[in-house]
Design brief:
- This protein is α/β, with parallel strands linked by helices.
- The chain folds into 2 domains: about 120 residues, NAD(P)-binding Rossmann-like Domain (Rossmann fold); about 150 residues, Dihydrodipicolinate Reductase, domain 2, CATH 3.30.360.
- Helices cover about 35% and strands about 30% of the residues.
- It has 9 helices and 14 strands.
- The strands form 2 sheets. An 8-stranded mixed sheet has the order 8-9-10-7-11-12-13-14. The chain has a 6-stranded parallel sheet with strand order 3-2-1-4-5-6, sandwiched between helices.
- Strand 2, helix 2 and strand 3 form a beta-alpha-beta unit.
- The longest helix is centred in the middle third of the chain and has 17 residues.
- It is globular.
């Protein structure tokens, strides 16, 4: 079975997140793209080998040639177009974050419940062997009982016109970067945290966080820190889980194919390995999504996971004295 993809929008993330892995996957065909600006969609299609350009998002959802839809739209549009695509009978791979806030995430889950389609949030890193290796070490008790953990994702993005700084589009450091830190901690510790406190660095004193650090407590008294920043001098994507016998330190967890390392320290002895550098997290994600479509099986990042992530994000904002992002009213 070939899964025929349509793309909503001509976003900058799409070439790496979908186009490249799709061209490398014999079970995927890129059949259509639609964007607000048709000229931009035509340029995108010509550059990336997408067969058709359609006039609107609605036309793409109505196309009988499209089996699945990739949604890399601004954060504020994820929820509405996920629901509209699912109701149109299309499988959905939607970029993170799943929605603008937890309440909207629950609305999405309720709206698509029972529909014969796969809906998956695109936390691509989750599918990479680097993360599986860390999970297995923790499951095996390699570092003893977990005591604490930390995850950070920083980039350098000083352009304040970027959509990540836009309140109306559900922007903010935590929405675009911190969601990875939060999701990784929840994944590795296999439980849900309580947000103890949080501190944000605001943009011009407003509601947008250019950086946020959240202090979390997981069951069993495990203390954790999740942080992110849009305005650091250098990109950083790292995590450390510390136990009674040692630690697991991960570098490059968001984009492992760009270079990664996992350092296991037990009883004072350390070993470092690079895990599956030839595997792209985006390729692994697409393969998992296609398998779920073809086999009708579950997805790793399921609806409960997506809601739980948004609940923690909302709690981080409240703890930092900021408002959770507001949902835009759906047009349908």
């Amino acid at each position: 079975m070939t899964v025929r993809f349509g793309i909503l929008g001509a976003a900058g993330i799409t070439p790496s997140a979908l186009i490249a892995p799709a061209h490398a996957n014999p079970d995927v065909e890129l059949v259509a793209v639609a964007a607000r600006n048709r000229g931009r969609a035509e340029e995108f299609a010509a550059e990336h080998g997408v067969a058709q350009v359609l006039d609107s998002y609605d036309d793409l959802l109505a196309s009988p040639d499209v089996d699945a839809v990739y949604i890399p739209l601004p954060n504020s549009a994820h929820a509405e177009w996920t629901v509209r695509a699912a109701r149109a009978g299309k499988h959905v791979l939607v970029e993170k974050p799943y929605a603008s806030n937890a309440e909207e995430a629950r609305r999405v889950v309720d709206a698509v419940a029972g529909l014969p389609v796969v809906v998956m949030e695109a936390f691509h890193y989750r599918h990479h062997p680097l993360i599986h290796r860390a999970e297995q070490l923790l499951a095996d008790g390699a570092i003893g009982d977990v005591v604490s953990a930390e995850a950070v994702f920083d980039i350098h993005l000083p352009d304040r016109t970027n959509i990540r700084y836009n309140w109306d589009l559900a922007g903010g450091s935590t929405m675009d970067l911190g969601c990875y830190s939060i999701h990784l901690l929840r994944t590795l510790l296999r439980s849900e945290p309580r947000v103890v406190s949080a501190e944000a660095r605001r943009v011009d004193g407003g509601q947008i966080d250019e950086a946020l650090t959240a202090h979390l407590e997981f069951p069993g008294g495990i203390r954790a820190v999740a942080s992110s920043s849009l305005l650091e001098d250098a990109e950083r994507q790292s995590a450390v889980v510390t136990g009674t016998r040692g630690s697991i330190a991960i570098e490059g967890f968001v984009k492992p194919h760009g270079g990664n390392s996992l350092t296991l320290t037990v009883d004072g002895h350390s070993t470092t390995e690079e895990v599956a550098p030839d595997v792209t997290s985006y390729g692994a994600q697409l393969a998992a999504f296609v398998a779920a479509v073809e086999e009708g099986g579950p997805v790793v990042v399921d609806s409960a996971d997506s809601i739980a992530t948004m609940e923690v994000i909302d709690a981080c904002y409240r703890a930092a004295g900021l408002e959770p992002r507001r949902a835009v009213p759906w047009s349908h």
